[in-house]
Every structure is written in C-alpha cells, then in structure tokens.
Amino acid sequence: MTTENTNNINDKEMDNIEGNEIQPDEAIADVPVTSKNEPIPSMDDFKDQIENSFKKISEGDILKGTVIGISDTELTLDLGYYAEGIVKLEELSNDPAFSIKADVTIGEEMSCLVLREDDGKGNILLSKKRADDILSWEKLSELMESKTKLTVKIAQAVKGGVVAYLYGIRAFIPASQLSIDYVEELETWVGKEIEVVVITASEEDRRLVLSGKEVELENESKKRASKMAKLSRGLVTKGTVEKIMPYGAFVNIGEGLSGLVHISQISEKRIKSPNEIIKEGENVTVKVIDIKDGKISLSMKEVIEKEEVAIDVMDAPSSYQSGEEATTNLASLLKNIKL
C-alpha cells in the first residue's frame, strides 16, 4: 500500500482495518445494570451463614429451624446450616391427636433435638418431641409460678379425670379440678378446649397437673368484685333466702351476690331463731346496710314501708345513702311537715 493510498483512507476505515476491537456501545451493553441505591453485598453480610455452614453439629444438640416442607410422613427444616433437617412423623409429638398437616404450618419455627448428623441422604435427622421434653419442663415451672392461663384441648377421659397435652407433655386434670360445677360425665369433656393453669410441674416425677377450676374461681372472683363495686349502702332490693343459720340468714340478691341478714336485723322484735320469721326459699325485701371486705350486710327491719325497691341490683342508681347519714337539703327538712 502506497503512502498516497494510505492518506486517502478515513478514520472509520482505519478502525475497521485494525478492527476486531469492541465498539463503545457494545461494551456498555455487556455491563450489568445495577441500581445506584442498591448496596453491594459484602462478606460481612454472609458472616453468620458462613460460620453456620462450618459449625460442628453433634447428636444431642438442640437446634432451632424453620419449616420449609411438609409431607404426610415428615417435615423439612431450614436450619441455616450446611444441610437441611428432617423430622419424621413419629418424632413430632406425643399427642395421639396430633396432625402433621393441621398442626404445622410453613414458616413455623421449632426447636428440635439432633438424633443423627446424617440420615444417609445428607440431611440432619431431628426429633421435636424429645426437644420439647427437655425444654418444656423449665417453661412449665415458670408458668406454674406465674399462674399463667393457657388453653388446652381435652384429649381423652381416664379414671378420675381427663388428659390434655401441653408443650408436648402429657398432663392430667383431675375431675375435681375441671370446673367449679360438679362433673359427672368425663367423656362429654373430650374434644373441648378449656382455660387452665399449671398447679404441679415435676420433671423428676414426670408429673404435670392442670386446673380449670382455679381459672373459673378467679374469673368468678373478678366478676363478683366488679358487681360489688356497683352496690351502694341503702339500696333496697328483693332476694331469696338461701340458708338459715342460728345467727341469721343468707339472702341471694341476684347476679351471684349473697348477703347476711343478721338475726338482729330480721325483725324489730327480739327473736330466738330466724325460723320464727322466715323460711328457706322465701322471697324477702332487704336493704344493703354495709359492704366491707367482700361481704354484704343486709337488713329486713330497716326497710321502710313504700320505700323504692330495685328489681335488678345492677341497674339500681348509685346514689343511695346510709340511714346513718343525715341530709340537710330543704326538701328533706320539710317532707315530714304536715300543713
């Protein structure tokens, strides 16, 4: 090629001659596009995963994992380790009513005991029920101390009570601790869910006892306290004589509230026995004369003729005054004056 010919070749042709070089547009097209705001991962971001992948796992260890697979016979757990965990159906729960499809959900976290480091398929073989057995007793002792209320489902009726399962542990509820009401047919309780508290949790004796009765008693006590707070001294209402004692009579005034009419408050005249004036089951009109230490004192003799009677103690106004308290408004001073 002569010098003259070389001078006639333009720059573009020279590029083609020297060619096989990547053009600027082509080079840009090969560069991955990333967001300006997207952070570039560093090794620190994967530190935990890397450490876990090299961590040694031994039989007897308790690991926490997340359920990522559920079949009819086993669960698959993501443990954050080099291998996944497998929990066979028979190692899930001691509860005979347990259902792998109904009682486990994807994404649920659970603690499991390592049975084998390798199940022969590269997975870690685990047991949830054995981990529960270890971890639950400590938790159950805490619940017993705190009197925490829990909901359990009655699994079966046995001699003297029923059986339920709490944190995978078999628990016994004596018939006397099922309810404040008398329990006659234990079989009718099977399948029911009830609120309970732990009253005995002995890992050494493998003894877990629950009580539904204590929960009911506490609830009744709170209801009674709430109702008592609405009562006022001076309230007049109807009631039924529940029980007669030598010193007086107990009268039910409704809403689960009962009060004592002392023998001295039954009649204006002196009597030796309440039976001289009233009988059990009789309806009487009474006045609330005192409310103290959770007890209601009533009087029959202090009920004034034509005095307003509250049919429902909970609907009665709270402006009643004790008969011992004097009033000084003009209407009160003039009401008994005859013109």
What's the gist of this structure?
The protein is of the alpha+beta class and 339 residues long. It has 7 helices and 15 strands. A 5-stranded mixed beta barrel has the order 1-2-3-5-4.
Please provide a written account of the structure.
- The chain is α+β, with helices and mostly antiparallel strands.
- The protein folds into 3 domains: 48-130, Nucleic acid-binding proteins (OB fold (Dihydrolipoamide Acetyltransferase, E2P), Beta Barrel), CATH 2.40.50; 147-217, Beta Barrel (OB fold (Dihydrolipoamide Acetyltransferase, E2P)); 231-322, Beta Barrel (OB fold (Dihydrolipoamide Acetyltransferase, E2P)), CATH 2.40.50.
- It is built from 7 helices and 15 strands.
- The protein has helices at residues 3-8, 11-18, 24-29, 47-54, 128-146, 213-230, 330-334; strands at 62-70, 74-78, 85-88, 109-116, 124-127, 150-158, 161-166, 169-174, 193-202, 207-211, 236-245, 248-254, 257-262, 283-292, 295-299.
- The strands form 3 sheets. The chain has a 5-stranded mixed barrel with strand order 1-2-3-5-4. Strands 8-7-6-9-10 form a 5-stranded antiparallel sheet.
